[in-house]
């Protein structure tokens, strides 16, 4: 408003003489001159050019505003013609927290007469604002207007009656991004709100756009300025451009590569061109580099997308800084090293970025001018800078320190409240440091209430984190590893500082815990804890304890934890009910109640009663609060009465113990005179204070510490089976690593020996001698300079002996080395002994992925439930759940009624062959008798009504979603089976299906043995214990109802269809194409059009066509003059589905003067009996060296030459035979049953849910059991669609014969597995897409398995030993089960249980993975062939060159039902490995695999572009493209 007052008093209301826009070279507006330099900005360029115009690079560092304040703000809702304000270029006064904004140069104006007039007036008057913030949170300020050159009465009066607060809006994702700016007018307390607008940050302190704010501005600002531009004024010289990175010779000055906006900050100065980041987002991979181009740094970007479009940041020149951030949809990896600003070590390339990668030009950080040279030189310079500023080297002001808390969004914190709380804690630390600059901690000048509030803030801060380690690590990272205030003194975090203090033989101590005075209700000042190392009293304390038996207390026999657990009722209940199912892990109190008895028995050499243990156990709750000392007492955290009651029982227990008796005698000896004098000075009886001190140590260190250790051991194993394995392999190493990662004692307190001045939070703080200093053990034990990969839990790490727990380096503590660890814990060995025993007993029933699953009593069939409450109910066993260690059952008669899971002793077998059906016949017999009759009646009625096109039929058709352009079924060519099958699949089932993606692949939860369902020799599980979601409705229906309701309903439907009458209709005038075309609603040029009319317009649940998308238009390319050109067979054999069956003949066959070196043989199938009237499968088709068919040899030896009158017929018969044989043998049996079914069954039966290989194979076996169970009913079952649409007589005989004739997988894929076999293939076969493209994909999958094997196969949790033998129990079980499954299913197999680890992964498992992915896509894509009955079908009448309508329509339902879109191989499956052992390394392997798949996809696409224009091919083959290939056989 002041701007308006000044404008009215100085500007004349006249038009700009030169019109709107830039008025002149020496601008004026009316009679008032405007500043010399101006920048005219179009709205579309406003944000981008604003980065240069709002850059504070010319402002001295000391005057730059804090990051929270800095930025360019849009003035949303302001009616005046000023558009935006740049706070970055204002002058900051840190002492007063005030920002000075010169209106004419720090604001942007509308570029018209009103805007320019306003700018001129404020320029003439020197108008400016003082924005004074109330505190260092910078969340609220008062704005006062001033005018340096004119103080008109109007302006003065205006200032006197106005008030302009600036208030940060709440609930912001980005702090400081939006402020409210109300205007109040009045006198004294009588003020009225007259207007209000908002300041929205559109460029942040780093001049990066704030996307949401920018988007809103670009929508609303045009309403204010119309088609006008925006103008920004500045001082001369005019026309200055940003030359940040340039030098005179056209080179670049350098830049900083940073990791920002995350807890782990990194930084390094670079000058050369550099790869900086790799991005994965929405089907795209991108790589970013920085290059120097004509003196300007530019970001270069290159990307590859397999789906969608790339939406990442575009390439651009760097004006000041540029950043690339991770998000939920965008993953970023660092590609170059930087220095970790907390731990001063290298952050290596390929590190996953949680926040952002940022590039800042060198002059953005003038204070870091010494950070140059090698990485080591820069590291040293950064260390020096951190000490100089008392925190992160980029900190300039206190506000920067407060803003640092925003980098921890979502990092170890829980919820929005806790994130805000972290910001308050950071403010508290900074405030404490500033207070200590003039008031020492605990001095009389420091308010007790004030310091108690500080203590309370830290005490309540801890629970927001997973543990103290997380909390203190975050404190360390907040200040980049430099010391911070902590309660009543400073805290240090780094290993070298902590280890030096801990090993000091003269380590000073004072009466302090956590740097605050203890309370005597918890600990007396005579405890050795408070005595300096090397003092006579401390040495005598240690000697006394050793002589009294502490040195050997761990060698005595203690009561077994198992005995004490047997008396614990909750543990009994947990074991009885199945500890892993209904009850959670034991609580700290449960564990502690056992620990306290064993620890006290070890220390005092006396057994404790249950009542005594019960009375002392509450110390676990009350005793741990003693760490807060007197401040905790004043806050109510320490409860003196409760502690006194607990200690009374404990002292009574100990007083008559052997250890107490010995202590009382020893203290009288002269060698303990100094200690005796110290104790007597307490004015308490000598024996009382001696016993009290030892008891306090026993409780605080012994009971609390050991309980913490044992509890974490138990809970970790309940949570993660990996920990079960690690604990059982080496319990000591496991417990050591547990304490390194989350110690029971997280810190110790030492003291200064002289006056010192520290730099805390940027303040010079003087500390007197004897000032308590807290040393953080938990952060020291995560220091990456000592412990590589410090956050990885690895009991096998070589440097465990260096960890700082139990009051010294572990290696010295274990050796009881007083020289290396002067204050080592005397109870270490006892604590370890007790913790191991308790933990082992409480976790003994847990199963680990590295351990044997154990045998279970085999129960199957019909059972009676003996458990209480079930009253002998009869049920059917569904499967055995290894995780619950129970059999899961359903109702005897209704499999949709899931009952529950029971232990073996709760089930009585009534009939091992009863219960759940195991064959098609049993299954159909269990369907209610009324169901088939009702289905038969409904099918007849529906068919009749639809066929006669009655009103009822029309309604039914619409309800079923029948398209009006779709042809109708008619009884002269169709039957009830075909109509029912078509309606069930195309009209009912497919509309419920939706495309599935990687998020449909769940983390496995069970390990189980499932009942099998058999058709002939083929057997498959009848339940998938991983429960994939296949149709949208599955997300809303309870899983048991799906398993035992929907699926049985589907099987009853298919069973009903099998019982329907069957007539092939080959012997009369029915079922002919002439009849069909006469009955059609419209005319068709070809039979293909009629067939596709039944599917055109029909969609899945997510809008995809039911019929699979066409890849090759065969008719367009090869249908010529009403017959098929020979190029069709060439395409099938050398470009598409038949390539793998090509044989190279040496010598070639000579025929008709031609050499025929290639053949695809089908004559061996001639012997399969067919039904009357159908043609037989046969034909060995021979090809020329160029790939064209030239001669077919029939089973009887007849040779049919190209051009013979029967040539077209036999080619049709050969095509039908080939594609059907591939469908039946290569696709159905080899891929689905031999590979997918065997692999899915074996993995679920042998591998625990958290086994890394189970997680990996969950991707490759997704949906396998479900789809195979459907195939058992529809494809290989007798009298169903495959039987009826093919010509075979006994279909089950085929299912028996095919498995025995399949080659072993390793033999089938030998050309891809072994290079010597590849080299045997002729060049023309190697060039076929199956082999050429497939080899790329095959090698990528093999590299995935190789890296997986190298990551997991060796070491403490390895699957294999150094001799490459499979040693992991579950992996060996998997290998044995694969052998057994192949044997049970009568598959020819070269598998044996003696395979090496490398053979298992890179040959055996690789063969399975390839078969269910690339091979499956190659042999399973048949939609293009089966859409045309003249191209190929399952059967044909002998002598005819097309399939009959009935059989072909039956066959098309198979093509539709197996075409639903499934998760693609290239998708992101990282969620499947959540929580798995070595998760981060596994995710890196997946990232490399995905990156390779993207490269393969790009290469395949390049090859396909060439193939399209190749006259020898003319079409694409996408069956090895990872964005097309499915991850499993789920389709």
Automatic annotation (TrEMBL):
UniProt superkingdom: Eukaryota
Gene Ontology molecular-function annotations: heme binding; iron ion binding; monooxygenase activity; oxidoreductase activity, acting on paired donors, with incorporation or reduction of molecular oxygen
InterPro entries attached to this UniProt entry: Cyt_P450 (IPR001128), Cyt_P450_sf (IPR036396), LipOase_C_sf (IPR036226)
SUPFAM superfamilies for this protein: Cytochrome P450, Lipoxigenase
Name listed for the protein in its UniProt record: Uncharacterized protein
Organism this protein belongs to: Effrenium voratum
Taxon lineage: Eukaryota, Sar, Alveolata, Dinophyceae, Suessiales
